[in-house]
TrEMBL record, chain A:
It comes from Catellatospora methionotrophica. Residues 211-233 are annotated as: Disordered. The lineage of its organism: Bacteria, Bacillati, Actinomycetota, Actinomycetes, Micromonosporales. Keywords: Membrane, Signal, Transmembrane, Transmembrane helix. The chain crosses the membrane at residues 247-269. This is Peptidase. Residues 1-36 form the signal peptide.
Automatic annotation (TrEMBL), chain B:
The keyword Membrane applies. Residues 1-32 form the signal peptide. This is VWFA domain-containing protein. It holds the Pfam family VWA_2. Keywords: Membrane, Signal, Transmembrane, Transmembrane helix. The chain crosses the membrane at residues 398-423. InterPro entries: CLCR, VWF_A, vWFA_dom_sf. The keyword Transmembrane helix applies. Residues 45-234 form the VWFA domain. It comes from the Bacteria.
């Protein structure tokens, strides 16, 4: 599939093998893919916190129920990890402060960003509902696009890596700010891993450590860069596609073709006894 | 030879595959470098700033005075603090009883130093508080920022007040912005006790200027919950503060950035330039988040562009919005096209080219002053480039199986007929 393996071809293959296994599991459990709304996975620990910025976003995983208390007007951040082929569903419920304390309608928004903090579109779900002045709670939802395994650098397609989600109230009477709310959040995911070609060498996981300004000459190496010396054997085998479900499909196709050939051949011979 | 290599690699892949699959299922922390040990961030420093001005005598929270409710809430929070939390307490308007505004507006003291908390001492200090004087919020914020000191730890001030600042100037909101602009990350969370419109606006302004939060408390339970929540949040969200950098006015001579997180400020309609060394076999990733730390007009945008040294645009990231928000973000990826295989690797791919990044914004404000500029966070990463995949050499799907089967069948039929024809010809001869 790829012609350049500048780093860790063995690791690449391991990851692909993992992908194939995950795909096999997904195929064995069709029920998991058919669920309409995300449901908490049994035994997963509940999360009761949230971050207040991209850097401090709380990491959650799929199926992990989140419940936090906050104030109207807070910006709440969570982050999660998505792999190639995954379609993530986000379900949020905000329990609003008592209607007697509020003075008007409020608009709530869930925004999703990828690891580069680029806005990601929702294909489904109520992303910006308006809660009326008397509503007791408001539900938000967002279904993301399927994560691609590779995309051109110039595109904004969703790629494997970290995703951020931000819950905020974008429009409300100013007096209603600062009242206590309770937020429930749950992530669901389904999808298949095998559909795409290409591979992102480094997932879109953002840097979190403070940076450093380099000397003006700029001769030093800017990063923990890939060691550019793959073995001779790896170089010689570059033309061979990576381990993937395609091998199975193609091999099965060959076997079927051979069997069909034998059948076809035998059809032309009249049985004589 | 080749088959042996293939078999051993595949065996390894099959054997380690499940382990990798397991490890990818487990939640992982958002760290970019696997090989670099995750340095734990220093424990956060928190200072509670409590207004003990005369207005705290008002008995309007479930029939109790505001100060007694605040004292009870503080006691509960001090009891519930996890060991090792660095917490200090500062009060304002607690001692000066006179009418002289000049003296009354200097009245702010730290009653518990910022250190792992001594519960008994903190409680007795809280119990001794009597509502007295003026409300010098701005000065108290300055004092609290000094108490927290500088350093690597994230710093949070929790300001609890019931009345507006009676000592401006300095306007507390300007003070908050000035403190935030001073460098190390300082966040002010505000809590209004039964606030009126003016107080709320002032606290909202302070919170927005530093990226903090605002909450109001109408009952004792709400106050306790809210303080507890803020202290917990300070502990949970401690990260190493980003490095401070000052962008250039043009590409030439702009600061050269290594991968990492930076923070800088940019005035409305200002441009800030940076340079990043990127080798031919590397991909540049950059993202920027501009914080709306002041009142701006409702529609706005941010633009992040990557240009070559000669000014040619390579790629851009942009986002726009309208209405209430905390930050406006965008990002970009860029890598050179396929690395040139023919070129001498020693000469070409190790000498990094400098890619320029420029950040501009389209905010507008009719009220807010220009300086000190709106804060933004810049994240730079340089990783191995991901080349475009070739067309797949293998197939997949039911259609492929069908086509192969039909082709096999036809080949078999053809072969069979040819053989029959050939045998028939051979026999007749």
């Amino acid at each position: 599939m790829l012609t350049h393996h500048r780093q860790g071809p063995a690791r690449t293959r391991h990851r692909l093998a993992a992908g194939v296994l995950a795909a096999a599991f997904a195929a064995l459990l069709p029920a998991a893919a058919a669920v309409a709304a995300p449901s908490p996975s049994p035994g997963s620990a509940a999360v009761n916190r949230s971050g207040t910025s991209f850097l401090t976003a709380t990491v959650v995983s799929v199926g992990q129920p989140v419940r936090v208390t906050a104030s109207t007007g807070d910006y709440l951040y969570w982050s999660f990890n998505a792999t190639a082929g995954q379609i993530t569903e986000i379900a949020l419920t905000v329990t609003l402060p008592p209607a007697t304390k509020r003075t008007g309608a409020s608009t709530w928004t869930v925004d999703v960003f990828d690891g580069l903090r680029r806005r990601q579109a929702c294909t489904d779900g109520v992303q910006t509902p308006v809660a009326s002045a008397t509503a007791a709670e408001v539900s938000l939802g967002c279904t993301l696009r399927r994560v691609r395994s590779w995309a051109e650098p110039w595109s904004g397609d969703p790629l494997p890596g970290t995703y951020y989600l931000r819950l905020s109230v974008t429009d409300l009477p100013e007096q209603d700010l600062g009242l206590p709310v309770q937020v429930d959040m749950l992530l669901g995911a389904h999808g298949d891993v095998t559909a795409d070609d290409g591979e992102l060498k480094a997932p879109l996981v953002p840097q979190v450590k403070p940076g450093g300004v380099l000397a003006a000459s700029g001769s030093e190496d800017p990063s923990a860069s890939p060691s550019a010396n793959p073995g001779e054997a790896a170089e010689a085998l570059d033309w061979l596609p990576d381990l993937s479900a395609r091998w199975i499909w193609t091999t099965v196709g060959g076997v079927l073709a051979a069997a069909a050939g034998v059948v076809g051949f035998s059809l032309t011979w009249r049985r004589r006894r | 030879m080749i088959t042996a290599v293939i078999t051993s690699r595949w065996l390894r892949a099959i054997l380690t595959g499940p382990l990798v699959a397991l490890s990818t299922l487990l939640p992982t922390a958002a760290h970019a470098d696997d090989n670099e040990p995750a340095e734990p961030a220093a424990p956060p420093k928190v200072e509670l700033v409590l207004d003990v001005s005369g207005s705290m005598r008002a008995a309007d929270i479930d029939g109790r005075t505001r100060i007694s409710v605040a004292q009870q809430a503080f006691n509960e929070v001090v009891d519930a603090l996890p060991d090792g939390t660095e917490l200090g307490i500062r009060v304002l308007g607690a001692t000066y009883q006179g009418k002289d505004k000049k003296k009354g507006c200097q009245d702010t003291q730290q009653i518990v130093p910022v250190a792992p908390v001594d519960r008994a001492a903190a409680k007795s200090a809280i119990a001794a508080l009597r509502p007295t004087g003026f409300t010098p919020v701005g000065l108290a914020l300055r004092g609290a920022a000094e108490d927290l000191g500088t350093g690597d730890a994230s710093r949070r001030i929790i300001l609890i007040t019931d009345g507006e600042d009676t000592c401006a100037p300095p306007d507390p909101c300007d003070v908050a912005r000035e403190l935030a602009a001073k460098g190390t990350r300082l966040v002010v969370d505000t809590l209004g006790l039964a606030p009126d419109d003016t107080v709320r606006r002032q606290l909202l302004c302070i919170a927005a200027a530093t990226g903090g939060t605002y909450a109001s408390a109408q009952t004792p339970a709400e106050l306790t919950d809210r303080i507890q929540q803020l202290v917990d949040r300070a502990k949970d969200t401690a990260v190493k503060p980003p490095a401070i950098v000052a962008g250039g006015k043009e590409c030439a001579g702009a600061p050269l950035l290594a991968p990492g997180v930076y923070t800088d400020r940019e005035k409305i309609s200002e441009h800030r330039w940076y340079r990043v060394p990127v080798r031919e076999d590397q991909e540049l990733r950059a993202s920027v988040s501009i914080a709306l730390d002041r009142q701006v007009n409702p529609d706005y945008g941010v633009l992040l562009r990557a240009t070559a040294a000669d000014g040619r645009e390579l790629v851009r990231g942009t986002d726009a919005g309208s209405g209430r928000t905390d930050v406006l973000s965008t990002g970009l990826r860029w890598s050179a096209l396929e690395p040139d295989e023919e070129s001498d690797p020693a000469a070409d791919s190790t000498a990094p080219a400098h890619v320029c990044l420029v950040i501009s914004n389209s905010f507008a404000s009719s009220t807010a002053g220009d300086a000190p500029g709106m804060p933004f966070e810049l994240t730079i990463d340089v990783v191995a480039t991901s080349p475009a995949p070739d067309a797949p050499g293998l197939g997949r799907g039911w259609l492929l199986l069908l086509v192969l089967t039909i082709a096999g069948l036809l080949t078999g039929l053809l072969g069979g007929w040819l053989t029959r024809w050939w045998i028939a010809t051979w026999r007749t001869n």
